[in-house]
Backbone:
């Protein structure tokens, strides 16, 4: 099993040379990421000025939950008017970058994490709202049901509650075999928590056809109860799962990759089953070949000693 990185490795490796080592270069490349996200790296005017553009399906929804503020906070000095056809554009003049190499390395790392950082904003907002419920000095907030339609016919719903944060994934299985494998994996998520060693893990609920109560009222889900291709996975996060610091950052990074890991495991399982079937067919062919009767060439002669040859 591979471990999916939270950051885009191609972005990091491509920008290390010009930004970290301050080596002017010619760039004009498109890099794709999970969930239909695409980046455009280019040097349209000069080898020493790099443009970094990003497009993602759910960007307008993320702006509602603080994406623009995050961009100004983390990438503010480099923000420029967006390139045509893209949602975000950053510009880096190699002659104006920090002199400290470690700062430039940190900048490249942040660029490779830009998708993760944008997707993290609704989670951060939900965690802060849940903290207000526990703070007796503050009035209870009206929690938002944050919707992120990050893929066609698939979405993430996030909502803070009195003592928890609920995260619901809708996932689409386009093939019947994917649906069968997915149901097995997701049921294992539900059953695995009964083991004593992982009882502190977030609670996971799985349902098919019928949406969870938290989102059942949404108009877009009113006519999906008969659709067997859609599954609903609910993660129930308690405060111990998103304590401030490394725990929170790791939780946000890992839960974003849930859908990618699920479909990765489905594809690996199908590939494993196909390899086992091919190996079994090869074994059957060997058995059939051994079962063929050998043709014995026996010479037959007449009474006069002549050999009889059958045509």
Residues:
């Amino acid at each position: 099993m591979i471990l999916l990185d939270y950051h885009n490795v191609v972005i990091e490796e491509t920008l290390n040379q010009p930004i970290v080592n301050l080596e002017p270069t010619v760039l004009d490349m498109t890099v794709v990421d999970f969930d239909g996200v695409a980046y455009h790296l280019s040097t349209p005017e000069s080898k020493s000025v790099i443009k970094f553009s990003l497009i993602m399906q759910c960007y307008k929804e993320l702006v509602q939950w603080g994406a623009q503020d995050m961009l100004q906070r983390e990438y503010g000095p480099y923000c420029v008017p967006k390139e045509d056809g893209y949602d975000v554009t950053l510009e880096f003049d190699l002659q104006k970058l920090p002199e400290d190499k470690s700062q430039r390395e940190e900048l490249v790392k942040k660029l490779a994490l830009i998708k993760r950082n944008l997707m993290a904003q609704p989670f951060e907002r939900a965690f802060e709202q849940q903290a207000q419920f526990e703070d007796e000095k503050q009035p209870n907030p009206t929690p938002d049901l944050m919707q992120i339609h990050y893929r066609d016919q698939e979405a993430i719903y996030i909502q803070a509650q009195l003592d928890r944060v609920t995260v619901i994934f809708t996932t689409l299985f386009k093939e019947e075999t994917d649906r069968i494998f997915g149901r097995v994996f997701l049921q294992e998520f539900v059953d695995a928590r009964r083991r004593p060693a992982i009882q502190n893990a977030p609670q996971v609920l799985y349902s098919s056809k019928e949406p969870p109560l938290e989102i059942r009222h949404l108009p877009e889900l009113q006519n999906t109860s008969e659709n067997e291709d859609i599954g609903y996975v609910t993660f129930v996060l308690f405060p111990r799962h998103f304590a401030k610091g490394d725990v929170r950052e790791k939780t946000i990074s890992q839960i974003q990759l849930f859908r990618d890991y699920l479909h990765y495991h489905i594809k690996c399982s199908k590939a494993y089953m196909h390899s086992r079937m091919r190996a079994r067919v090869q074994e059957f062919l060997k058995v059939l070949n051994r079962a063929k009767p050998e043709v014995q060439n026996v010479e037959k002669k007449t009474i006069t000693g002549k050999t009889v040859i059958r045509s």
